[in-house]
Every structure is written in C-alpha cells, then in structure tokens.
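Follow-up to my post from last week.
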Amino acid sequence: MELTGSQILLACLQEEGVDTVFGYPGGAVINIYDDLFDSPIEHILTRHEQAAVHAADGYARSTGKVGVAIATSGPGATNTVTGIATAYMDSIPMVVITGQVPTPLIGNDAFQEADMCGITRPCTKHNFLVQDIRDLAQTVKEAFYIARTGRPGPVLIDLPKDIQVHKYKFKYPEKVKLRGYKPTYAGNSRQIDKAVKMVLQARRPVLYVGGGINLSAANEQLIKLAELTQTPVTTTLMAMSGFPQNHPLALGMLGMHGTFYANMSVTECDLLIAVGARFDDRVTGRIDSFANKAKVIHIDIDPTSIKKNVAVDLPIVGDLQDVLGKLHAKLTEQTDAVQQLIENTADWRASIAEWRQSHPMGYKSSDTVIKPQFVIEKIRELTADDAIITTEVGQHQMWTAQFFQFRQPRTFLTSGGLGTMGFGLPAALGAQVAFPERQVIDISGDGSFQMNSQELATLVQYRLPVKIAILNNNFLGMVRQWQQMFFEKRYSQTCMELPIDFVKLAEAYGATGLQAARVEDVEKTIQTALDTPGPVLMEFKVAREENVLPMVPAGKAINEMVLAS
Amino acid sequence: MRHTISVLVENEFGVLSRISGLFSGRGFNIESLCVAPTMEEGISRMTLVTTGDDRILEQINKQLNKLISTIKVVDFTGEDYVERELALIKVNAEADSRAEALRIVDIFRAKVVDVTPRSYTIEITGAPAKINALLELLRPMGIKEIVRSGPVVIGRGAKGVTG
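User reply:
Got it. Predicted complex:
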C-alpha cells in the first residue's frame, strides 16, 4: 500500500514501539501533525521545543527506551539544539524529528530554514537529511538503531516538507545497512583474565562508576562484583542512582563536590576500576594528581573514552553487563584467592571507615533558617524508594546528589555533562508521562526554574502530578559561591533582585502553589504537596548564602578540598 | 609527528563536514585532505595528513572510527607505502630563463602542460619533498601561481585496502 511520507514516519515509529512523542507543531511538520490526529501515538504538546526534547530525554532516562521529539523547521528546530546537546553529553537514546523546508528550497534561505544537519553535527551521534521518500523507512530504522545501541545518543532526522507528502509503498525494513557501525558488546576474554589478576593483586582497590552503569542496566552485576570482592564504590553525578547509596560499600560522589572519603580513596587507591565513566574534569580535578598511585582498568563501550584523559593500564571495550558479569563469574571460580583478597584489603576498608568518620557528609543545621540540604533530606524521608528525582543545574543539583541517598536505578535524572539549567522541569514531565503512578519531583533553584517555567502549563493540561521543590535563595547560587570564594564576594549579576511570587505563578497556570518560610513548615509543606493531586509547586525560602561543600577549587587535586567547617 | 591516514567513508551527504568538523571541533591538526570516490559502490576514500603525539593520534583514529559514516581507518605511519602529490606551477619564463626552466623540468621529470610567451605551467607528481625541491629551484624565476593536491598514499605489496 502506498503511504505519504508523514504516514510512513508514524508507521515506522509504531514499528519501533513508540507510544508517546513530545513536540510542538509548525508549518514544516503540519502534515505529520495532521496524521498524528488519527494516530494511536500520544503526543504531548510542550510550551517550547527545548522542553519537548528535555521531556523526551526524561522519558528516555527513566525508562531506558528511545525518547522521541518533533519540532518544525527553522526556529523550532534550533530550539531543540540545547536539548539535543544535553542528551548527547549524557549519552541518552533519543530520536529528534525536525521539519525542513521543501527540498527545492533548501539552501535558498527560505522562510524558517536552518541547516539542522550542519548545526547538530557536533551534538548528535548521527544525523540524517531525508532527500528521497524511498529512503525514509530505512532512515528511521537506522536512526533508532544508532540511538539505542553501543554508546547511546541522540539522532536527528531532518525531514523536508515535500518528502512528507510524497507517496511510496511502505514496508518496514528488517535490517540496518551500516557497514561502518558495529559496536563491541562482548569484552575481550584475555583482557578480562588480566583484570581478574589485577583485582586479586590489589591492596587498595576502588570502583569508580559512571553513567554507563544505568545505560547498560548493569546495576546488579556491579553490586555482585562489589560485594564479592568487598570493593568500595564511588559514583559520578550520572551514576548516583546506579548503586544504592545506603550500601555499606557506597562512598558517594567523587570529584569537585565529592565526599571527603571518596576523594581520599581515589587519591590513595592502588587499583582504580573505571566502569562506564569518562574521567570528566569535574571528576578528576588536576589530572596529573588523579589516582596517580593506582593502576587503572577502564571498562567502556566507547573506545574513544579510553585513554582520552588519563593513561590506562588495562582497557576493556564492551558492554558493562557482559564485562562485569564475566569478571564476577571468573572471580567466583577462585574462592580462595577472593578470600585472600578480602583479607588483604581489610586495612584499606578500615582506612576508608576512618576517613568517613573523621569527615562525614554533613551541614550545619539551623532552627531559624531553612537549610536547603534539610529540605532535600526531608523529601527523601517522605518519598518512596522508586520516586524519580530530577534537578536543574547548580547548588541544588549538587546538594541533591550529596544528600538524597538514591536507592534504585534511573531514579535520578540530571544534566551532568552539559549542565543545562531548565532541564529538570521538562525532564520530570517526561518521566511522569512514562510512569504515571510514581512520584516524580523536580528539585530546582529559583534561577533554573525560570528557564523553563512555562512547562507548568503542560503539567496542568495533561494532569501530570509532578511536584516541584524550588530552593529559593534569590541568587544564582553556584556562581555566587564561586564569586564568594574566588572573586572577593563581588556578586556580579548573580543576585535575583526581583522577588518572584512563585505561589501565584503556579496558580496562574492552574497548579497548586505552596510556600515554606520557616523550618517547622518544611515537612508539612512536602507532605501536603505529596498528598495534593496534580502538579504542585513548593517554594522553600532557604538560607541565602549556603555553600556546596566539600569543594575542590578548579585546577586543584581532588584531595585538596575546601571542607565544611 | 606527521601521520598520513586513509579513511574509507560512505559517499553520502555531509560526510566531508563530519570529518573536517571532527578535526576542528576537537582541536586536531589537519595539514591536507583529499577525497574521491573509489571503485566500490558508495565508498569514498579520504587521505589526510595530520600531526600530533601518540595520545592525540590514538584519539584521532578512534574518533574517526566512531563516526557512523566511517567504514575503515588506516594510519600508514610505520607502514611501507607509496606517497604521491600532484602540483601545477605557473612560473615566469621570459627570454633567458626559458631554457633554464625547461632544464629543471627535465631533471625533475616534470612536464610543461601550458605555454605562453611569458610563462610555463608545469605539472609534477611525486612525494611532497620532491615538489618542495622543485619549487625551491623555480622560485628565483618568479612563481605566479601554484596549486597542490595534497598527498595520497597507497600501501606497498599485493594486499589492497577495501571497504
């Protein structure tokens, strides 16, 4: 049967199992929207294309499925770029479909034309401009395949308006034709044997775990390996929900705002097992001091991550489920050697316990002013283990990573690599669409919230019961902290001088607004929000000049921390 | 260190910008780049010359391989290979210098491909060093224009690199 291009597109999405897309209509996608009108695919209309992409991202991060967003050509398409770059930096599987001007007009500076393949080339895993209706189905098939396999990432399909109306017989291809793309899943068994030896010889081992742990869903394999060998586990921002933070072997986050004991452990270890992590500068601090007493095993599905920033003694390219599973299986065969390892490393765990005791994670509590960390701890107490937490970017994000104590995979959705303010609210929206029954909470700052606050309308329209906790200090807090510490308290453009009535803002959109200004109101406010149906915005008037500590100043080694007094 | 790398790529929309954008975006050097289709359907071959230490070259190789459009990457450094570049050189050739120019062309086994009363256009093929040497000798006569293709390489021996 012959279908139009836009019908073929939607048929392909259904073949890929897509039930929900996020988007915003416009002239160059009007045919797609006309066919969506009769399609079983649910479309969520956000109030900005950037938010549509972040929502698809939140959907993908919480489910592991490929998120899908649609935008029109020109400004609609360029609005998606921040969302795409956010997903790219955190390796999130996503397909973004943008309309394009008709093929005869491409390159003519036509109305609402933008060269999206050119613009998104450095921030997509791959992108396509469909130039012939006969290629459309194959292109969609390959876009989804590329997005979800190997190291996942966003893929853009730029679809000209004339291709959307051309007709062609529809048959969904069974195979992809990508001779240049064959990701390695199985780890090299000789390399894994070498890793077994290195693990058994270690005296001070640490597992350094990144976002790959969630992307490959290797959480069980990691727990089993850590427990078998009694190896402490430090997690990056992207992996805070990848390993239960209440586990006795959990060291919490490492790096710029990492725990004292995680940073000391990495500095002093003699074997660093990097698992799906990429030695980001926020993790390593001064690179030549990072784990410089250690041999390094680096396990990653992306060969370019290995030896990019640090020298590696043993690289293993592969999927974490495969590699960690095999590593565990091979170690299980060597009961005596593993027993010996656990004895050999007992002193190491004792040293870490001392660091943990001498410098625990904490903050100075207060009876008179709401401490932002206190709000986060209370949210943790009052929510279920499977609650999904999103954040924006800044101090509140770091406090959430430090204090929330995540227990389950894919419960912490945050923009780690790109650090995109305005990510959290639309990401929460996407996660709530994916999981209507679970608690979804966006922990936000007053600065970040205003970058995508228009999405309150989307929450209300679709009755999505996302709860928003704004930790309002009337500052762009993280920049203010840097100005305090490194720029002699010259608070240039970081004071948000206009006080926003967030309660009224929520009410204007038809959501519920709550405010807590006193310490004793915090718990009650959170409970009320959780008990109230529909979207609720909570504003907490928090201590204005609270700092995120510990902190490794830029350019310092990670054991040179400014600690909480 | 100087490396000459051959990259077999899908001959498709935007592939050149993917390669050149990779180099500019990641701050890798690129001295020359030439591209043309191969005998194999849909495959083009790029030859690029770059410089960098071992760590950078490892990244260049890996990053090139990571592109979906890349089919194969071969770094010829340390291999036995033939390297050739083509140059067209327009040089002043008047009165007394005409004979001298022809002698130099002869020594280098180059060819004159266009003649006017005041100039020769010379074609030369060879390793980049040979072209540089010719240019040095022609320079005193006054070079009006030069165009170089950038080198292409092929491995020695019977085995071929294909997609």
